Amino acid sequence: GERLELVLTEARTCPVRSAALRSAIDRLCGAAVAEIVISWSGLGDVAAGSLAKAIRHSRSLRLLDLSVNRIGPKGSAALAGASGGLREVRLDGNRIGDLGCEGWAQALRRGPTLRALGLSDNGITGGGAFHIAAALGGLTELDLSHNALGPSGAVHLAGALQQSCDLRVLSLAGGRVGDAGALLLADALRANVSLEALALDACAIGPQGAEAIGAMLAANGALRRLTLRGNHLGNAGGASLAGGLAANGALELLDVSVTRIGRTGVHHFAA
To answer: Which of 10, 120, 184, 245 has the most CB atoms less than 10 A away?
Structure first.
């Protein structure tokens, strides 16, 4: 059938009204809409709930992007409950918090359809990471960047990575997992064969965490992209990463920009 794309990107000062939104979506869902992108529109929980009712029985919708819309736990729960056929959901820049993660964990448990979930910058802590990590299922891409996950969030995600899962792309940038979290994630990834891209930018990782990541690189043959931009690795951390990289034949990109690696550290990569 025909595939249409609905894009409503409004100014912050002109929020989309709930009734008008549902009316538009009701009509368009009958025309086999495949993608809905509504960003920066101030939807809020009420409009998100109306949208959830409209898309609940859609058989064609695959992508739902409602980034930066002031959606909280209630609106998130309604959308999660209506997400049955979706393959990709992006709720970046909203306010779903840990409570909102519970609904998405339930959605992930209901079936393997959902493949990509974007929850960047949503006020999520280690508690929210716990809910998501316990229900990864067939998810292949997870974005939890710019949330205050801390070391406790890394504990839960590391546990999931040690299990059999399909996750290929994981972003924890800005999550401040620290050295403790880096050690846990590195240990989990030593034997992981699915993850291909990991973002740990601005995660408060120092030389100790870099040492663990370097040892992981020497053992891991699946990871293709690793970004550590904005951490405080220093020359010692650079040496550890260079040593792991020398024994790794799979990694295609290693970003260590703005990590306080000086000339001495750079020499280790050139050796």
So the answer is: 184
pLDDT value for 16: 55
pLDDT (0 to 100) of residue 34: 86
CA 54 – CA 57 distance, rounded (Å): 7
The first and second tokens of residue 1, run together, are: 């059938």
Q: Which residues make Cβ contacts (< 8 Å) with residue 105, sequence separation at least 6?
A: 131, 132, 134, 135
Q: What angle do CA 56, 160, 84 make, to 5 degrees?
A: 10
> What DSSP element (H or E) covers 79?
helix 73-81
Specify the pLDDT at position 13: 42
109 DSSP 8-state letter: H
Beta carbons within 8 Å of 59's beta carbon, 6+ residues apart = 85
SS3 category, 261: coil
Q: How many other β-carbons are positioned within 10 Å of the β-carbon of residue 2?
A: 8
At 149 the pLDDT is 98
* Residues of the chain with confidence (pLDDT) below 50: 1-4, 11-14
H or E segment to which residue 143 belongs: strand 141-143
Q: How far apart are CA 107 and CA 1, in angstroms?
A: 26
Question: How many whole angstroms separate alpha carbon 163 and alpha carbon 156?
Answer: 11
* DSSP assigned state of 214: H
- Distance between CA atoms of residues 186 and 148, nearest Å: 19
Residue 144 in contact with residue 153, Cβ under 8 Å?
Answer: yes
Whether the pTM exceeds 0.70: the reply is yes
Backbone phi, then psi, for 34, in 5-degree steps? -100, -30
